[in-house]
Specification:
The chain is mostly helical and 606 residues long. It has 28 helices and no strands.
Length: 606
């Protein structure tokens, strides 16, 4: 297989969003080429990238300080404090150690590079140099593209630059050089910034009157009015010391139902809007604090507004928080009592370093970490399930049983808690009808889609990790209960998963006719060559190549919907696969294998 064609398929296979995040996927190849792989190289690269971002941030803040008229020494010390406070902050331990959050760190690197290029272009244009527009083009064109191909919020680069620029002194705006710079800046940065803001507003307006977002229990409007309270909570975590940072579980945050429920929804919306309005009005009077505050809110524009993401994740602050500690550094560096300011600044950084060290130590101890996260988020079903599983696996059965009992009472409709209860009951050979029924009830009435958790858990019980006491009939009952949930029934992809899993159960029962029927039904729900190949191969591996052939024949009677250019990377990926003849070749190879196996089986018959 040609490595080039394989690489192209890998880089275009991302499905996290329309961009596919190909540059982030490419960066993972620095650490491993085969999966699963050891985590250390990935974490090492994440740490190096974090240090690089800290160095770029120091240079950026020092440059901005000089533009604001700070003396050289004061500008440097303000930049040292601002960058160090961001670099050492315990909130970002999870970003660095959680490998996939490379997708938050890499676009930040390109955004920082773009801001440097923009400032260089700005300086050159105000000095009358002809090369200035090239730097602006590299910043708002190339760096924005690279950042967006790492993660979509990289497209915020032009907006962030405009916000910083609005607080910078430009001198005599009537000068030819200043007017020329403003024209170029507006021509290159303004269209992208306006398009981002307009896109967010368009999605919000389009969603008014619609029900919950796909696979979510809240509407887009409810998400938008909930986020101001979460942004204020982020600021609390960033500026006020906490004993622990970096939990991966935040499902305890519930969306506001309207502006008055909970009661603080409207006040927090007003507070955030007023803060932005006042900051803009005072951008010339207090330029450094205003730049930091508006940068923070603008940095959250995509992930904390109208996208149908989960409500809360700490790593979303990685880019927006970059300027937040710089005003403190500028204030400390401007104090007349230099020694006192130095001691205070060092004490603040030392305190952050200690908290970060404690958080890193917690990440080294999975069981202790799980318990802390569960204690800090009693309303998180995920945190409780995670802690219960680790306690039980560590042999602390009494603690696990107590935690599970409380979780079952508090979260009777949470599939993850129900699955955990079955896991523990199976390991102890104590699975009862009551446990079955509680799990079925949770799956039938859950308020949200169980997502990929359903497939992973069920497949583990069918194939990888048989559960003592949990037979195929019991698993099928759980799937029937899930399919009866109206939330799940409205999602074709999840119903396809259920049909596929029922086909796997039929194979485990050595019933190829039923398996073929279920696999055909799954394929009818969402036509996909990848799904057809997987299911036909499963039939062949189970000793039923003729049924595998018939499944491919059924696929030939269907027509997979073609991806549209508006679907972004998905469309590009499918176009590349079509030009490479990938699916055609894979289908032909599998058909040949199935035909050979079928002929061999017929030859062995008496």
């Amino acid at each position: 297989m040609d490595n080039g064609t394989t690489l192209v398929r890998y880089l275009t296979a991302g499905r996290a969003d329309p961009t596919g995040r190909p540059l982030s996927l490419l960066s993972f190849l620095l650490d491993a080429n085969y999966w699963p792989a050891a985590p250390y190289p990935f974490k090492r690269t994440n740490l190096l990238l974090h240090l690089l971002n800290g160095a770029l941030l120091f240079a950026l803040l020092n440059h901005l300080g000089r533009l604001h008229g700070l003396q050289t020494e004061r500008s440097r010390w303000a930049a040292v404090f601002g960058a160090s406070a961001w670099l050492l902050h315990p909130l970002f331990v999870s970003t660095v150690l959680y490998i996939v959050q490379r997708e938050a760190m890499l676009p930040t690197c390109f955004v920082l590079a773009g801001l440097h290029l923009w400032l260089s272009g700005r300086r050159r244009m105000l000095a009358g140099e002809r090369s200035g527009p090239l730097f602006l083009l590299a910043a708002f064109g190339l760096c924005t593209l690279l950042a967006a191909l790492s993660k979509p919020n990289g497209i915020l680069l032009p907006l962030l630059a405009l916000i910083i620029d609005a607080t910078l002194p430009i001198g005599d705006v009537a000068r030819y050089e200043a007017r020329r710079y403003v024209r170029w800046r507006n021509a290159l940065a303004m269209p992208l910034a306006v398009a981002v803001v307009a896109g967010v507003l368009w999605v919000l307006l389009k969603s008014i009157g619609h029900g919950p977002a796909t696979a979510r229990s809240f509407t887009i409007v409810q998400r938008v009015i909930t986020e101001p309270a979460i942004l204020l909570d982020y600021l609390k975590l960033l500026f006020l010391a906490d004993s622990h940072y970096g939990s991966l579980f935040h499902d305890q945050y519930q969306a506001a139902t309207d502006l008055f429920h909970p009661w603080y929804t409207l006040p927090t919306c007003i507070a955030c809007a007023a803060a932005c309005a006042l900051a803009w009005r005072w951008r010339r009077r207090f330029p450094i604090p205003v730049a930091a505050l508006l940068f923070f809110f603008a940095g959250h524009l995509l992930e904390s507004s109208s996208l149908a993401l989960e409500l809360y994740f700490e790593h979303r602050n990685y880019l927006p928080a970059m300027l937040l500690f710089w005003p403190i550094g500028a204030w400390l560096a401007g104090r007349s009592h230099r020694a006192g300011a130095l001691v205070l600044g060092a004490a603040l950084l030392l305190g952050e370093a200690i908290l970060t060290s404690q958080t890193v130590s917690l990440w080294r101890e999975p069981l202790a970490r799980a318990r802390v996260w569960a204690e800090e988020a009693p309303g998180s079903a995920r945190a409780q399930a995670y802690a219960t599983q680790l306690e039980d696996e560590a042999g602390e059965h009494a603690a696990a049983a107590a935690r599970l009992g409380t979780a079952l009472e508090r979260f009777p409709l949470e599939p993850q808690i129900a699955f955990t209860a079955i896991d523990i009951a199976c390991r102890r050979h104590m699975l009862t009808e009551a446990t079955y029924e509680a799990a079925a009830h949770a799956l039938r009435h859950a308020k949200h889609d169980p997502g990929a958790l359903l497939t992973y858990w069920i497949e583990g019980k069918i194939v990888a990790r048989p559960c003592t006491g949990l037979g195929l009939d019991g698993i099928e009952r759980l799937l029937e209960a899930t399919a009866a949930n109206p939330v799940v029934a409205a999602i074709p992809g999840r119903m396809q998963d259920i049909a596929h899993l029922r086909g796997e159960i039929a194979l485990a029962r050595d019933d190829p006719a039923a398996a073929l029927s279920w696999f055909n039904a799954a394929l009818d729900l969402q036509v996909s060559p990848g799904v057809a190949l997987e299911q036909a191969a499963a039939l062949g591996r189970s000793g039923h190549p003729a049924e595998g052939q018939r499944h491919l024949d059924h696929y030939d009677t269907l027509q997979a919907p073609a991806a549209r250019p508006g679907e972004g990377m998905k469309w590009l990926h499918e176009t590349i696969l079509a030009r490479q003849g990938y699916w055609r070749n894979e289908m032909a190879a599998l058909r040949q294998t199935l035909a050979t196996d079928a002929a061999a089986r017929q030859g062995r018959r008496p």
